[in-house]
Amino acid sequence: MSNKLVLIDGNSIIYRAFFALPLLNNDKGVYTNAVYGFTTMLLRILEEEQPTHILVAFDAGKTTFRHETYKEYKGGRQKTPPELSEQFPLLKEVLDAFSIPHYQLEQYEADDIIGTLSTVEKEDDWNVTVISGDKDLLQLTSDQVTVSLTKKGISEVERYTPAFMKEKMDIAPDQIIDLKALMGDKSDNIPGVPGVGEKTAVKLLKQFGTLEGIYDHIEEVSGKKLKEKLTTYKDEAFLSKDLVTIKRDSPITVEPKELAYGGYDPNQLSGMFKELGFQSLLDRIGGDTTAEGTSEPMKEIDVTILREVTDDIFTGKEALVAEMLGENYHTGTIEGFGISNEKGNYFIPAEVALQSAAFQEWAEQYDNKKMVFDAKKTLVVLLNHGIHIKGIDFDMLLASYLLNPSENNHDIPAISNRLGKTDVLYDEEVYGKGAKQKVPEEQVLAEHIIRKTAALYALEEQMEEKLKANEQLELYKELEMPLALILGEMEHLGVLVDISNLEEMGNGLKQRLQDLEKEIHELAGEPFNLNSPKQLGPILFEKLNLPVIKKTKTGYSTAADVLEQLENEHEIIPKLLLYRQLGKLQSTYIEGLLKVVDPHTNKIHTRFNQALTQTGRLSSMEPNLQNIPIRLEEGRKIRQAFVPAKKGWIMFAADYSQIELRVLAHMANDDKLIRAFQEDLDIHTQTAMDVFHVDKEGVTDSMRRQAKAVNFGIVYGISDYGLSQSLGITRKEAKKFIDRYFESYPGVKSYMDEIIQEAKHQGYVTTLMKRRRYLPDITSRNFNKRSFAERTAMNTPIQGSAADIIKKAMIDLYGRLEEENLNARMLLQVHDELILEAPKEELEKLMEIVPEVMEHTVELHIPLKVDYAYGDSWFDAK
DNA sequence: TTACCCACGC
DNA sequence: GACGTACGTGGGTAAG
């Protein structure tokens, strides 16, 4: 049994907590926010890390030994706010109640205490985790020492291992010192070398290794200016290095073995919590704290490389990775397969597996359960090799996404790291990146892949437990997982494109663009790059003296809404607008689409990202088929090029009418809104009637337009500012509209108020199907952050529930098409719309079942309504 | 390569 | 009143 030592940088964490949380005080008027934040974090650390030994280190007093060498050290720092200072003694009391030792040392900082204690790593049996918000501590990272840094406030930490640092910052732990020496650090008043920032510093360190290395080879430094600066500020650089180096031999009077931790006494703690008014924490200490599993770093891993697949390696429950370099799995090739199960870890070279009947047989058996990362990708790559995988019942990607969609790194090593399993390498570490990317020798490749499958195998249970605790198991198993396979089939099938149609359009556009360019250059009096706002700006606003409406960070804004306001000022403007419009069509939609058509089949295979958006919507890329033009006729014609795959087939498009507003009516349970939908009224007209207090006949076009914008705002969670922009009115007026809207729909108003309260209370909001979005900023003292979080709280349940609904509809429709033995099939999803292709003979049936399935996939307080259309191309399905 | 501007969809 | 304002993907330019 090895020892697990947790070292907490007390000052750093309490500062973080203080600034991350609003200024709470208890009933006696004592400020407690920082202590509260610290305590919640502490509870989590105890759960997650299960330390056998623990210490919280604090800075002592104002001066340190560092001031002797540099008296300006930490100069210019703002004084600690008194609201925070008064919490230090409280925190120490809380630590005592936890029976957690804390320590400080005259003339030394918490860093040095931690640095010194972390050297126990050298005695083999210790594992150390350092917890801080200060990047300087990263220099302590090693094989035995993990440094967890707080991210965004204190609600999240990021665990740095040497490998993770390499991946994220591209430097080794001890180079942090050199990095800081070069960059300096404003907050500690460390000078560094002026003009050298992170980018330059990393570049130098990659070349020369250390600060000393740089100065030993100063002549080899590229760039005259840079060399000069380095030479001039050499002393400062070395002084800085000295200052940022954490002491590993401070004269501390504690020893690691004295820090043994046997847990806390809930009774003692609850007294303390009651006194402080930490109501919500009382529950947490009552229950058991041994729940979360942690895993020891696995140093070595056994891999069996198979030259032949025999069915005796399979057990019926294995983790599978079909490894592929690059993003696009429609065109990529498999490098090899990894399989982990109870018996061991196997690497199968791609050609061995793909020619093996035993492998195919195993893959296609539904009863053989597979744990994978990205079921959709796995399905598609295997389909491309003629294997139809079945029996996938764990998808780490989807599980991770559902647990926290705002986490933007969902690859196996990142997820594993977060769950305490730190022995999976990042792809970049193994393959390199960019032009230098390459496949390593087989043994290395095999081990890398096997570490992934081993992680899948090891973490399935833990992740599913978490989903279960969130009540998201159904969302995961019954919605996202089945959908992944359907999306995979849709992507794999692809959409047929009429290439010559696109090319003809392109040729026409090319001519028109050339003509326009010439005309615009003549009107401008000089040639310039029309696609460069930077060049266009001065022409419009200096040479032609047009009034400046808006500026951007780097110059004049030439965005469409600006140009539209100048439309009558100069004849160049309408031509520019047209040029922009056509240019977009040409570059993005004609050329862009032609670039991604499969030349053998003339089909386009998009990729839907099912684990990306914060709301639960899908996204689509390479190409994005969710933003094909429709608003303007000219652009809409692009859709003529999307045609059915077979002769005698048609395109069939069905879309939900006002799904978000209907969802809102349901969730808010607003009488008026519900009635409007039950009677199937034109919702924007109805809103106009309610907001402007007129009858139907009294609604003018302008009123309806404004009402529509307000509805739009409600659905997308825009601010009064956003609404003012879209309506071209002042913010005040926009706010008035929103207020009037809420007056008219009191149910909506109270729903919105409640949802914000709920978000504040539990830290997240949920959708109909229990999808979550965490909103840590909801309690921010920063008005903007908080406002944004509040709008998000209001908007996400609406948009996210709509996303849930159409996802479920896709699953239902897929099943129904199969049941009815139809050849019709889904091709695309565009948020509230499904596009299918089908034989003409099935048209009648589709007109019956598609709306039926979509409208009744869930039953709400209001009816869902689906419109549909069909034709010989996507364009004609309108 | 990266940052910025712009524009398309929902 | 602050401050920067729905979410995505992708094309282009310009600067490093």
UniProtKB/TrEMBL annotation:
Transmembrane segments: none
Annotated PROSITE patterns: DNA_POLYMERASE_A
Domain (DNA-directed DNA polymerase family A palm) ranges: 635-842
Reaction catalysed by this enzyme: DNA(n) + a 2'-deoxyribonucleoside 5'-triphosphate = DNA(n+1) + diphosphate
3'-5' exonuclease domain boundaries: 302-468
Any coiled-coil regions, as ranges: 459-526
Superkingdom in the source lineage: Bacteria
A single GO molecular function term of this UniProt record: DNA-directed DNA polymerase activity
Subunit and interaction comment: Single-chain monomer with multiple functions.
Family indicated by similarity: Belongs to the DNA polymerase type-A family.
Protein name (database record): DNA polymerase I
Source organism of this protein record: Virgibacillus xinjiangensis
Lineage: Bacteria, Bacillati, Bacillota, Bacilli, Bacillales
